[in-house]
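Lab notebook, design round three. We kept the backbone fixed and only want residue identities now. Task for the bench partner: fill in a sequence for the structure below.
Input structure tokens:
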């Protein structure tokens, strides 16, 4: 994901957190200057390069980007499920209710995951265990996090399947992932994310309708990373990486919550269709 900050030096450790923040104070999730790299035979891949955002309780945040731009890696880093090696978080902070998750131990992250934050994965078939029934996989969350008996957990699994409108849930709770259609498997993933009523749910979705391809992350272009395929690109785009501008109306009035890392954002704004 492109960002305005300079990549971190090799070996940099995550910055210190700001300490605990009581519930209701500050954002639910606060991601600051997050950086993730993968070390491969071809070199270091800068998959996430300075991502910053926050999410308040009750808020929906859409992170848009084409396939390969780092959305899933960002989500995996936040959830604590990044494959390491080869993935490595080299900088930034991930604060959940004020707790710095990058400083949390493995057991603390595991306790948070599922119970307080959950993720709906893009590929349901590869995310579900093929040798365990969907009922077992749904019920396991209640057994691990809530201490429920197997019978109680199975009953809650049926309730969840009913909740996401899987027909004949009581009869199908013992079926395996391959016995469901792709759409039904996705509903099971949604049910799994909703199971423990977490405070934060992340949902991944692929986007394809973007002209050209993302830059080679082992050889990121100088200047604006999009200049090789941008129809507005000029000489300054090749040499200078744009800062993050505050987007404003023509009279200078800032547009709340809008910013742009583009040298020619004013042209884009003026050419945009009126809504």
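Proposed sequence:
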């Amino acid at each position: 994901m492109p960002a305005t900050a300079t990549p971190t030096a090799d070996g940099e450790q995550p910055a210190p957190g700001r300490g605990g923040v009581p519930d209701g104070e500050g954002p639910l999730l606060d991601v600051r200057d997050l950086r993730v790299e993968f070390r491969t035979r071809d070199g270091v891949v800068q998959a996430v390069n300075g991502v910053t955002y926050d999410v308040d309780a009750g808020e929906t945040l859409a992170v848009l980007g084409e396939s390969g731009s780092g959305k899933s890696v960002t989500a995996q880093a936040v959830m604590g499920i990044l494959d390491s090696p080869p993935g490595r978080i080299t900088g930034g902070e991930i604060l959940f209710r004020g707790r710095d998750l990058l400083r949390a131990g493995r057991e603390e992250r595991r306790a948070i995951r599922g119970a307080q934050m959950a993720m709906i994965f893009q590929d349901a078939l590869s995310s579900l265990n093929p040798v365990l029934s969907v009922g077992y996989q749904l019920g396991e969350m209640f057994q691990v996090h809530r201490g429920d008996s197997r019978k109680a957990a199975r009953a809650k699994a049926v309730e969840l399947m009913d909740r996401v409108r899987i027909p004949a849930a009581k009869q199908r709770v013992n079926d395996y992932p391959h016995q469901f259609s792709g759409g039904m498997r996705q509903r099971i993933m949604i049910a799994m994310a909703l199971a423990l009523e977490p405070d934060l749910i992340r949902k991944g979705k692929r986007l394809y309708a973007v002209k050209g391809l993302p830059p080679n992350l082992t050889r990121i272009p100088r200047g604006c990373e999009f200049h090789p395929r941008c129809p507005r690109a000029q000489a300054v785009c090749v040499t200078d990486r744009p800062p993050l501008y505050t987007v404003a109306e023509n009279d200078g009035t800032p547009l709340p919550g809008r910013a742009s890392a583009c040298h020619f954002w004013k042209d884009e704004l003026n050419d945009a269709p009126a809504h």
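Keep this in mind before ordering anything: The chain has nine helices and eight strands.
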